[in-house]
Amino acid sequence: MTGRTDIDSTWEPRPAARWEDAFLGGNGRHGAMVYGDPADDRVIVNHHTLVRPNGSQRVRPPELADRLGRVQSALLAGDTGAAEHFGAGRPLVWVQPFHPAFQTRVRPVPGNAADPAAAYRRAVDFATGEITAACESWRSRVFVSRADDVIVQHVTGPGLAVDVTLDHALPGAPPRLAVGRSTVLTPDGARLTLRAGYPDSELAYTGATVLRTEGGRVSVAGEGVRVEGARSLLLLTRVRRHTGHLDLAAECAALPGGGYAALLARHAALHRPAFERAALTLDADPAERALPGSELVRRPDSPALLERLCAAGRYHLLSASGALPPRLTGLWTGDWDTAWSGAFTTNANLNLQIASAAAAALPEVSEAHAALVYGQLADWRDNARAIFGARGIVAPSHTDGESGHTRHYQRAYPLHLWTAGADWLLEPLIEHAETTGAEDPRLTAALHETALFYEDFLTRTGPDGRVAVVPSYSPENRPANASWGTVDATMDLAAARHALTAS
To answer: What's the 3-state SS for 405-457?
Structure first.
């Protein structure tokens, strides 16, 4: 499926002015947000594991099971507000917020910047994951390697004169973040590292960037290095979250060798086949296919827009899925105060984000989702036992990717009452199994545990003599004639019925 560059790419005639407009790359672990500005060539570095400790990781579900019977009886007797007292007084605890690591910056020495108005173009090739920006004789290329798990940036131009730094000062960065840097010159360039220790925590993260130059001179300058007279720069960047201290020399030595072309070829050999498993072609107007994305979105009836949206959606879904499935912001953020903590919101968003995985021929997405689900089953068992006094599993409404304990207590959003989560989150894995034909004993066991929960929980009957799901909650909905916590929310009924028949 080669030769679709007019469909499987997008471009813009100007650099990104803010991180929300950056072009994105990722390998399911590392993420890169590329501005493509020759006056300040910035790449924001992300990693799925970067969540800021806030104390929530130690919060366990409260022991509410001994109160459950009273709440059930009151609701069934017509006390529509009874569930408001089940868990009342407990604070809403947000999960650990997802945050960026830092940004690499390649800034021309004053007087040496290329003119961004001179035939400027930045683009992303969905089939390879390569992001490019170019004007005059300057060119910058970035991708996130699936083969080597590293962010690769290559900058070329005649007689490059630039300062290279690792900059942690992104919006919302904690003022008490303990930041340390080191710079070491090497025969072919330099090693730059940045360690950031979280306030009031033993956890930290460390980024390592190896700089290799072709020609020119490299010297220490400020918090980074200055390169003068080089024909090209190659930057290789990784980040790790950890406790204690890392061997910085070993971290840098572990970064791959080889030139840009060889690194890209290794990556593309893995990325391209995955991306090209499926495509949408609508015989669109070639002139519309050639438009930049900012112009194409103004033509909502254009077949070219649908083609590009399909390609872009598959690209970003693939790029954000690996160690974990996509967060609310995929694998990317440029701000430490990301909305809703940049978490996994499981009561709707996560399933909607990955709903096309099977149809889009992206098993990588389903496998990433499986890693999240199966990695948290022990916490889900804690939720079932502590809140409902039941066997089996109950999923939380939010997770940072580490803890699966329920901790969302709010009168208007009593998400600790939502029991449909486990069945809801297992549904994409059922679709994956049905699509591939592969049996997964982990899925069978999880479905069995979901059914066990309902066997223990569904012990009450309503006035009509039917089994009742009580208490029950439809996420972010409220009956017109009752409170948020209620009886027989449709989603809970559907999940219970499915769990008891599918397993």
So the answer is: CCCCCCCCCCHHHCCCHHHHHHHHHHHHHHHHCCCCHHHHHHHHHHHHHHHHH
Q: Could you state, in chain order, the average pLDDT of each consecutive group of 10 residues for the chain (503 residues)? A: 77 97 99 98 98 91 93 95 83 92 97 73 98 95 98 97 98 95 96 96 97 97 97 98 91 92 98 97 96 97 97 98 98 96 95 95 98 98 98 97 89 90 97 93 97 97 94 90 91 95 76
Please provide the DSSP assignment of 247-300 as one string: -HHHHHHTS--S-HHHHHHHHHHHHHHHHTT--------HHHHTS-HHHHTT-T
pTM over 0.90: yes
Is domain 9-50+98-275 annotated with CATH 2.70.98.50? yes
- What lies within 8 Å, CB to CB, of 206 at 6+ separation is 193, 194, 195, 196, 239, 240, 242, 246, 248, 251
Residues near 433 by beta carbon (within 8 Å), at least 6 away in sequence: 439, 440, 443
Which regions of the chain carry the CATH code 2.70.98.50? 9-50+98-275
Looking at residue 394, its amino acid is V
Q: Which two tokens stand for residue 482?
A: 């009752």
